[in-house]
């Protein structure tokens, strides 16, 4: 067997072909390809940092170290503002240390999709400074009310100004003192999701949803109402009939009922409820380019199928 006198090298590839190959490798998670050369690193970094998914303490600490190196180290290979121009999707979960969330947000001001799946205990003045500044202007946002300071819990804050998709997380019915009426100001909003716990003797689920629908902008086409507790799907629950009326589209055709608690169906009626596991929900936010579906696409599909069923029944 004879060997080639001039073995083939990736350097022999045309730039556009080589770039495409390495970008595809990075898309598949082969981030080690960034160490091949400086040229290759410049190609794949835009892919590697496009979607940042931080769910553990270690992930948060490592990414925060990258932030610090870029912003403070003279030996950094990345220019200041690198993350602001590269990171387009940022997902932060409760595993990330609370004190690191604000610095990470400050470095990623160019995000178009931002999801803060963080508990109330992560709220702090440094975070509030960032969330009420005009530096962040995503078009898709998932946020708990506690991520805003008590004096500014309204939808007039700059972070909401360009939103088309908004998920409000873990809102208690009595809950945080949110100026709900200001929801009307979101003139670009088309998709709204509310994850709300309710257990009031005075208000039914229909009262709550109808109140929210009454203050939604006219632009809203999809409204997801997440039911947290499986017990509410039991026929003897005071909320059951209201939930099923919403589910059937009898209250408003834009409304979809969602549920994410794992386990077998509790009732026959629940089998038609939009069910998504927590893993699928966060995949839609954290890795949008790889997600099979999102809460929005599932809800849109549910609304379309419901309309088709009605059309076929007539």
Automatic annotation (TrEMBL):
Residues 7-52 form the F-box domain. InterPro entries: F-box_dom. This is F-box domain-containing protein. It comes from Coprinellus micaceus (Glistening ink-cap mushroom).
